[in-house]
TrEMBL record:
InterPro entries referenced in this protein's UniProt entry, alphabetically: dCTP_deaminase, dUTPase-like_sf, dUTPase_trimeric
PANTHER family xrefs: DCTP DEAMINASE (PTHR42680)
Protein name: dCTP deaminase
UniProt cross-references to SUPFAM superfamilies, sorted A to Z: dUTPase-like
Keywords annotated in UniProt: Hydrolase, Nucleotide metabolism
Gene: dcd_3
The keyword S-adenosyl-L-methionine appears for this protein: no
């Protein structure tokens, strides 16, 4: 079951989910609009290697916005801290942003029960596109979980700002176990 807008509001007020800051005007019939935070991260190496940490560059989005370029992956983040120990969150791009040619969160929309923090957003434009800090970029939905809940305790917990991939940590752990 998916939470309706009124139930999202009730759950945010009674603590079953966290949305900080919470703005009633961002509640939709069955989702909550999240805004783009002020920081972007890009990878600087010509080849990204999942078996090691990759160098990055941080960009702050100024008042005039920032132009995203095609062929580049940008890691952004939600302005809001979002999470729940009760519901399964899913985050998707807003259709109005998709109609501008921006792919948002197309490969990893599902969040874990127990994660609380700013969500890292994978942003890929089809053509040059100016984005602004604070613009409504995505919408998050919440689903009721069935069964025993084992809360998330992973490497991205309590994230603030965009977080580059830590996949290499999984590779290191797997290699250590295999040795």
């Amino acid at each position: 079951m998916i939470l309706t807008g009124p139930e999202i509001t009730a759950a945010a007020h009674d603590g079953r989910l966290t949305i900080t800051p919470f703005e009633p005007a961002q509640v939709n019939p069955n989702s909550y609009n999240v805004r783009l935070g002020p920081t972007l991260v890009t990878y600087t190496s010509p080849v990204i290697d999942p078996h090691q940490p990759n160098p990055t560059q941080t960009v702050e989005i100024g008042p005039g916005g920032y132009v995203l370029q095609p062929g580049e992956l940008y890691l952004g983040h939600t302005l809001e801290r979002v999470g729940s120990d009760t519901f399964v969150p899913l985050l998707f791009g807003r259709s109005s942003v998709g109609r501008l040619g921006l792919f948002v969160e197309i490969t990893a929309p599902i969040g874990d029960i127990g994660f609380h923090g700013q969500w890292t957003l994978m942003l890929s434009p089809i053509r040059p596109l100016r984005v602004y800090a604070g613009m409504k970029i995505g919408q998050i939905m919440f689903f009721v979980a069935t069964g025993t809940v084992a809360p998330y305790r992973g490497k991205y917990q309590a994230a603030t700002g965009p977080r580059p991939s830590c996949y290499w940590q999984d590779v290191a752990r797997t290699s250590a176990v295999a040795s």
